[in-house]
Amino acid sequence: MIHLEPRKHTSAWTNLRAIMLALLITALLSVLVLFVMSDRPTDAIWQMMTFPWQGRRMEVQWGLVLQQTAYLACIAIGLSVGYRANIWNIGAEGQFAFGSIGAYAAYLILGSPDSAYVFPVLILAGILAGCFWAMIPAFLRVTCNTNELLTSLMLVYVASHFLTYLCIGPLKGDPKAGQAETYPLAESVRATKLISGTELHTGLLILMAAFFLLAAILLFTLLGYRLKVAQHTPRAERFAGFSPKNTVWLSFALSGAMAGLAGAVYLTAETGKLIQAENYLENFGFAAIVIAFLGRLHPLGILLAALLISYVNVGASYIQASLRVDDSVADLIEVVALFAFLGCAVLDNYQVRFTSSRKAVTT
Amino acid sequence: MKKLLIAFSASLIAAAVSTGALAQDKTKVGFVYVGPIGDLGWTYRHDIGRLAIEKEFGDKVETTYLENVPEGAEAVKSITQLAETGHDIIFTTSFGFMDPTNEVAAQYPDVKFEHATGFKRETDNVATFSARFYEARVIQGLIAAKTTKTNKIGYIASFPIPEVVRGINAFQLELAKHNPDAVVDVKWVFTWFDPAKEAEAAQAFIDAGADIIVQHTDSPAPMTIAEKTEGVYAFGQASNMSRFGETSHLVSIVDNWDSYYIDRVAAVLDGSWEQSDIWWGLSKDGKGNGVGMVEMADYGNIPEELITEAKALEESLRTGERHSFPCPIYKQDGELAEDCAAGEEHLKDFPTLVSMDWYVQGIEGSLPK
């Protein structure tokens, strides 16, 4: 029989060991995946690892990686707040969409101004809209005790259909665009590029600032401590005078706000307009869930996980373009990484013991 | 195990050394598709064109494609990756890639870009091309006029862009000529490829009494719906869809990009590539010479004499004896089209057809504005 016994001591060292082991397993399995999926596997593996130096301009590849990292890290750290307290908001994609809608609505309400000063207003509106959309599952959980996994997920579909509806209906822009979309924001309202021809823009700085702000709150303040308590011993949370209901509200508000912020930045920086959902949403909200777990719900872990997965994703798109390897490679590697990391986390916290079945009966 | 590791790392190093050298030899041709290559329609035909390039030039070229690329921000990333990986010419084959193509082209002046069905050429390295699909719509108009019994025709349209509007107008003009009582009902589905939505639209038309389904979307779903109902007929779009409508398929418009693609890649190989805006119809020059971008496939399920008539019309369109938009043409509100008022024999390509955003007389409803 195989038993899992809780380890008495876990330390930074065992932690690090588990992470290194997970990385090694991920790397080996990824190589295997590439061997199966590519007809020039050695080229594929080499280019996948070194793609920023393979392309024509290094800053373009790094731009793509850092852009994705910023969105994923920002949304994932918001989600991790709730996950630490066993509150499962898996609807960040919908809150992201609402962030964009909120920012665009604010732009219209202000009368489509052509002025850089409204940029912060748009961002703020996006945060509030994302927050608003996250409040619905929080409200249902607190008042009716509904399962927030289901409600938050279902609201993603409501949000994306609402986005498409706006683009086909009330906010419809140029009908000759070839896709349903709104009229674009004025150029001055949009985030500016840091390096021309790359995806690096001022919006990413805002995302990273938000990330580090929330990371600092979680790591160094009473609020962060309180959420940690809620995670490990829910009863102690109550004894200490923290209300579990408030924890629900707070974690949904924070995760919704972060996703909404990302949505607002995406609108101002990437597209400049709302577009029908299937052409607009890039699944950042769902990918961020994986990032939160890969990063073990720790801010630093989340940042590194976001960087790793973005690197893999962009690398996959690179080898798809250069070697015709299907980019589902990225999804496979992501799944492999998730299993390796979760598996190694279990082995970090528990010890495997093999006992003979006879012994098991006697004890 | 150890040997395996050594062999593995050795091959990695070998690969690293060789990739740099290999890449420069071949001319790299990239494609960006909006749908899957298995859509059996639009994207499928473009991919046939890609394979024609491989067949024609063999070892001299290497082709790559990215499929299912959304037309939003992700299109820019996909096109950028093709440019970054050393592609010499990149074909972007959906109208919605127009702005992304121009945006990336501005960053890579030494790479050639070919955008299908668009009209923006902001830098010298962007060319556009399109097919005169509307010539085929004229033939469909004739067949529909003489086949419909309910005089109701359902037209599934994707987006109100000039290419689609031209098709609807050409169809209506010929339909009205042969059967003034027939009415075209246009439904905008706002997608190029969504079998479920396309099927839904076709079914809605049939439920409302239509017995002819015309589509300007990419999947064979409407054809399969028509096949299920007795007495309902449909036209195939982009590729030969006759196998989906044994008793309902009238004729398919088949896109043929092969010879254009081969011409353009040949121009890159010999250094003669230049910006252009090329439209081919049933023939290359509109006067009956050369293989064009539009073909008619498998006339069927109609009487022999109608086939003969349709083929005669096809021939006259091919040789340019007959134009698809002959004057006089009246707009929906009864006003004579500007070109006709100016004494032209038919509507002009520029600026009338390229930016067509009005219905001709007889179409009900209005263009989404």
Please give a structural write-up.
The complex is a heterodimer of chains A (363) and B (369). Chain A is mostly helical and 363 residues long. Helix content of chain A is 73%, strand content 3%. Chain A contains 15 helices and two strands. Chain A has a two-stranded antiparallel ribbon. The longest helix of chain A has 28 residues, at 244-271. Chain B starts with a helix and ends in a 16-residue tail after the last helix. Chain B has two domains: 20-131 and 257-280, Response regulator (Rossmann fold); 133-255 and 296-353, Rossmann fold (3-Layer(aba) Sandwich). Chain B is 41% helix and 17% strand. Chain B is of the alpha/beta class and 369 residues long.
Taken together, the total number of domains of chain A comes to 2
Shape of chain A: globular
Question: From the coordinates shown, what is the CATH architecture of the largest domain in chain B?
Answer: 3-Layer(aba) Sandwich
Largest interface: A-B, 41 and 41 residues
